[in-house]
Structure formats: C-alpha cells, structure tokens
Write a structure and sequence with these properties.
28% strand, Rossmann fold, globular, five-stranded antiparallel β-sheet, alpha/beta, Alpha-Beta Plaits, 15 strands, seven-stranded mixed β-sheet
Length: 350
C-alpha cells in the first residue's frame, strides 16, 4: 500500500478564491528535495507521498509533488518554479516537466478529501477529517476541515509541532499563543491538551474562517481566541513577566527572523517557543535570530528536509550596580609611557 500523503501545513494562504497547482513527477528519492524547491519558490504548501507506477514497472518508483501558488499571479509562479528547478543539482529534477492547473474551492475540497487521512501525533493526539468516526485507540481527536487553507497535520512541520506541544503541555500552561494558525490545528490541539486560553492569529481571513469552523467542530470555542491581525496588533507587548509561557510559530523562515524581537517580548522568562516550517538549509538563520542572551536552544528535531526547534526564553541579565557584590571593579589608571613602574608597599613587620 502506498504511504499516506504528506501535506504541508502552509502558514500562508492566498486571499483569492483559487489556487494554482504545480505538479511535478519525480523519482521517490527526489520528492523531498523538490518539495523544498517549491517552498523556496513561494509555494504556500506542498503535497507529497502520492506514489505512482513508472511505465512498465511492477513497483512504485515515482512520486508526484504538488505545490500551490496564489492564482492571481500565474506568470510569477511559473517563473519562480522554473528558476528553482533550474538550480537543482539533480539532472532529472532540472528536466522534470511541470503540469499546471487552477483549483477553485470545489476542486480544492475534492482534492484534499482524496488525500486527507487520519494521522497520529505523539502519544495522545490524532488529527482526523470530519467524516472519520474511528476511536483511534482512545486518542484525543483533533477534527480538521481545511477549507481553502492549509494544515491537516500530515506534513512533517505540523506533525513535529504537535509532538513538541504535547510534550511541553504536560502539565499544560495556563496560556499559549499560536502565530500563523492556518486551519487552527495547533491551537485546537493545545486546547485539547488542557491549555485554558489559546490566542491564535493569522493574517489571512480565509485561514481564520477555516480555523473558526474547526474550533466549533472541536467544541473549544471557550478556550481558543481567533484574531485576524498582525502579532503587534493582536497581542500588544505585555509588561515584563506577563507574556505567554508557551508560543508556537509554524512560519516560513523570513517571517520567523523578522518577528524574533516581537516574539521575545511576548514569551515569559523560562517560557518555551516552538518554531517550525524551516528547511535544514535555513536552520542557521533561525539559530542566529533566536540566540543568547535572549534564547537557548533546547532541541531541534529533523524530519526529511525540515527542522522543528524548541527554544527557552532566558531572563534578561541584571546590570551590576557599582559598589555592590559582583560588580566589576574599575580598572586602575595606567602609568604614562616611559614612567618608572610603581613599587608595591610592603607591610611593616610588627
């Protein structure tokens, strides 16, 4: 049986009502690399894992990788994809043909229904479509209908985020913040893990609409607050020590780096931050943006070409006061050049 398809939990979705799909058929070994190239080209999400039979073969050797771009800029999307493929090291990838088609809302729903399968995360969670009624061994169900947004829990970025949040929410903190909520899958999981107040924000109205429907499906409306605003507008910087003990940001690397100072102001000292949506080649940028003295890296989990990291917010160092214990003494003035060295006075014998 072919493996379950993996769907990128894209953090951004197009404000239009349609997607432009780029489908590329490549050998299975190259699928993750092609998915990373599509993300680098601006794809809002990627679907992989759909294996196909090569002509005349008895086993599945190829896989179709599909990326999704805003349909309002088709020429830009085509140029970006062709440029990204041309830079690939693999000759087969550089020569791969790209099939394009436009997906409206009805085609999009038919498409994700075909590929969405229940996926287990960690020890307690399972992400399921609305029509799934299986008990899944008593796991906590997170019911997701993506609408026109991304995020069904099957891609490595979302799956690793779910696992990290499950570990960090034992015991659950009182509050949590989800930046770039998409379908709301992470915010809903946090609420079902016991977090009493979850603030979930996204800049895309369609993503917030999809998340709102999923919040109702999971009966967590009393715990999850959805906001369609930027981080600065949705969550004003709180006083020191009054932020969130747990924050998750499943974003592209440019957004993670840009938001680093703002996120630091919203995590309490000792609090945890989960970052995801980062390619291995981009991890150094994230490590640099979330470095000492503000942050300490606790873990970095690699899945395929993606990295999910957990950082701890460090308390701000207190400046030492002159004359207090631990203060650095002032340096003694140096003698002028050419002057005879001063001798230390010896204590007299008593």
């Amino acid at each position: 049986m072919p493996p379950r398809p993996k769907t990128n939990a894209g953090r951004r979705s197009a404000p239009g009502s349609a997607w432009l799909e780029a489908a590329i058929r490549v050998p299975i070994a190259a699928a993750d690399r092609v998915g990373a190239l599509l993300i680098a080209a601006g794809s809002q999400g990627v679907i992989t894992g759909v294996r196909e039979l090569a002509h005349g073969a008895r086993r599945r050797t190829h896989e179709t990788v599909r990326g999704f771009f805003p349909s309002r800029e088709p020429a830009r999307a085509r140029l970006a994809v062709s440029t990204a493929l041309a830079q690939a090291r693999d000759t087969g990838v550089r020569r791969a043909a790209v099939r394009w088609r436009e997906l409206d809302a009805s085609l999009w729903e038919m498409d994700w229904r075909e590929h969405f399968r229940p996926v287990r995360a960690g020890r307690r969670l399972v992400v399921v479509p609305p029509w799934d009624r299986d008990d899944h061994g008593g796991r906590t169900r997170v019911v997701i209908h993506p609408g026109m947004a991304f995020g069904t829990g099957q891609h490595a970025t979302t799956l690793a985020s779910l696992e990290a949040l499950e570990a960090l929410a034992s015991p659950p903190p009182a509050r949590a913040l989800d930046i770039g909520t998409g379908t709301g899958v992470l915010a809903i999981a946090l609420a079902k893990l016991g977090v009493q107040e979850v603030v979930a924000l996204d800049l895309d109205p369609q993503a917030v609409s999809a998340a709102r429907g999923n919040v109702r499906r999971n009966a967590v409306a009393g715990r999850v607050q959805l906001v369609c605003r930027s981080l600065a507008e949705a969550v004003p910087a709180p006083p020191a020590g009054r932020g969130f003990p747990l924050v998750v940001a499943n974003l592209y690397v440019d957004a993670l780096v840009e938001l680093a100072p703002a996120i630091a102001k919203r995590v309490v000292p000792g609090g945890r931050l989960v970052t995801s949506g980062v390619l291995r080649s981009q991890q150094a940028r994230v490590r640099s943006a979330y470095a000492a003295p503000a942050w300490r890296l606790l873990s970095a989990q690699r899945r395929g070409g993606w990295v999910t990291s957990v950082f701890q917010r460090l308390p701000a160092p207190r400046p030492a006061r002159p004359g207090t214990r631990g203060a650095t003494p002032a340096a003694a003035p140096r003698a002028p050049r050419g002057a005879a060295p001063r001798r230390r006075a010896r204590p007299r014998n008593r």
